[in-house]
């Protein structure tokens, strides 16, 4: 009944999203859960390494088109659009927005804290979206995916788990 009245409590969402989306099974033992998490983290790391490799190609002098990676063009296009969309993404809504307003997350210099937090979230969002563009090059990235991924970043502090929930959500 509580979930119907106010949704899943924020404190449980990091555990509920992966189960609802099939990232992990409810019946997993704690050992299986940790093994799965480690495996997903390693796979996500591979996507991030590929992103870094492709970004490196963008700064290299290139001799001929024959040596270019086949996924460079699609990654470059996705990365360009992500770079434009990520700064426009709203992370402060729902519970988190109320926390900012009530000062729960304020420090000595609230504006500086907010700026640092937004920059960190933007960087996490960019990594997730670029990694997804590598995972699914047919879809790559389209506008609006940033807002969907932001929901998982808001609810799941573990970037790898947020990525896999977003990827499962995208289908």
UniProtKB/TrEMBL annotation:
InterPro entries: Rab-GAP-TBC_dom, Rab-GAP_TBC_sf. This is Rab-GAP TBC domain-containing protein. The lineage of its organism: Eukaryota, Viridiplantae, Chlorophyta, Mamiellophyceae, Mamiellales. GO terms for molecular function: GTPase activator activity. PANTHER family: TBC1 DOMAIN FAMILY MEMBER GTPASE-ACTIVATING PROTEIN. It comes from the Eukaryota. Residues 7-171 form the Rab-GAP TBC domain.
